[in-house]
Amino acid sequence: MDPAIGWYQPEQEGPAKDLWTRIWEAQKGVDNMNLVDVNTSIGTKSHDYIPVDSTTNSDEQHNRVTANCNNYFNRKRRKRENRASTYGMNHNQAALIGEHGGCPWKIPNKTYGRGVIGLHEEIEDFYNYMCPTPEEHELRVDVVRRIEKVVLSLWPEAKVEIFGSFRTGLYLPTSDIDLVVIGKWETLPLRTLEQSLLEHQIAEASTLKVLDKATVPIVKLTDTKSEVKVDISFNMSNGVKSAELIKEFKRRFPVLSKLVLVLKQFLLQRDLNEVFTGGISSYSLILMTISFLQLHPRQNAFCPGANLGVLLIEFFELYGRKFNYMKTGIRVKNGGTYISKEEVLRDMIDGHRPSLLCIEDPLTPGNDIGRSSYGALQVKQTFEYAYIVLTQAVNPLNTLIYDANKHSILGRIIRVTDEVIDYRAWIREEFPLSSYPAVVTNQDEDDSLSSSSGSDGSSLGSEPGSDTGSESGLRVVIPSPVYHILCPPGGMHHQQCQG
Question: Which of 296, 302, 466, 490 has the fewest CB within 10 Å, making it most exposed?
Answer without folding.
Answer: 490
